[in-house]
Amino acid sequence: MADGDAILDRATFRTMVESTAEDWQAIARAAAPHRGELPDRLLAHLRLLDNDHGGFAVDRLEHSLQTATRAHRDGRDEEYVVCALLHDIGDILLPANHAELAAAILKPYVSEANHWTLEHHGVFQGYYFFHHIGLDRDMREQFRGHPHFEYCAQFCHLYDQNSFDPDYESMPLEAFEPMLRRVTAAPKLSIYKVD
Ligand SMILES: [Fe+2]
Ligand SMILES: [Fe+2]
Predict the structure, then answer these.
(1) Ligand nearest to the CA of 164
(2) pLDDT number for residue 189
(3) Most exposed among 76, 100, 150, 175, judged by the fewest C-beta atoms under 10 Å?
(4) 9 alpha carbon to ligand 1 midpoint, in Å?
(5) Any idea which ligand is nearest the CA of 159?
(6) What's the pLDDT tens digit per position in 124-147?
(7) Which ligand does the CA of 120 lie closest to?
(8) Which ligand lies nearest to the CA atom of residue 121 in the structure?
C-alpha cells in the first residue's frame, strides 16, 4: 500500500473484476474476529437434535453423545471422538443423505480414514437394518476391498449401531467441547490456505 492510502473498513468493489488487494485485506480483517466460531455453530446445531427422537428410543443428541462417549471410553483419539460426536449432524439438514454433511464439514480437519468413514457410515450402518425396510443390508459390499472398509465397519459396529440405549450413561455435550475446539482449530486442507 502506498503512503497516504486509507485502510478500508469495507471493500468498495461492486464486481470482483474490479477488486483490489486492499479490498481483500479489509474483508480479511472483518472476518478475523469470527474465526473460531465454527465450533459454537456446530454445538448449537447439535443442540437442535435434542428432543428430536425421530421414533428412536433415544433422541438424536443422545445418540450422538452415546456414540462419542463409547468411542472415548474405548480409548479412541480426540479426532475420532469428534467425528463420532458429529457423525449424524446432517440428520435434519440433509435427511436424504445425512452422512455427507458431517463428512464435508470435517474434511478439512480430519484424516482420510475418518473422512471416508463419516461419508460412508450411512451405507455401512444399513447392514444392521436395511433388510427390515426392504433394502439390501449388503449395500456396503460395493466398497469391499477399499482400504477403509474395515475401519468404517468397525465404527458402525462398535459405536454407532449400539448407541440407542436409554439406560447408557453418556458424557454431556460440554465434555466434548474442548475436543471439538481443538480438532477444528485450524484446517489442514483448504483452497483458501496460502502455502
Ligand atoms: Fe448416521
Ligand atoms: Fe448414528
Answers:
(1) 2
(2) 85
(3) 150
(4) 43
(5) 2
(6) 999 999 999 999 999 999 999 999
(7) 1
(8) 1
pTM of the full structure: 0.93
Ligand nearest to the CA of 91: 1
Given a cut of 70, whether residue 118 has pLDDT beyond it is yes
86-117 pLDDT, tens digit per residue, is 999 999 999 999 999 999 999 999 999 999 99
pLDDT band, residue 56 (cuts 50/70/90): very high
Distance 45 CA to ligand 2 centre (A): 16
The answer to whether 103 and 118 have CB atoms below 8 angstroms apart is yes
Question: From ligand 1's centre to the CA of 112, what distance in Å?
Answer: 18
Q: How far is the CA of 86 from the centre of ligand 2 (A)?
A: 9
**CA separation for the pair 151, 134 (Å, rounded):** 26
Amino acid at 151: Y
pLDDT, position 36: 86
Cα 53 from Cα 166, distance rounded (Å): 11
Q: Which residues surround ligand 1, an ion (CB under 5 A)?
A: 88
DSSP string, 21-88: HHHHHHHHHHHGGGTT-HHHHHHHHHHTTTT--TTSSS-HHHHHHHHHHHHHHTT--HHHHHHHHHTT
Q: Would you put residue 145 in left (φ > 0), alpha (ψ -120 to 50) or beta? A: left
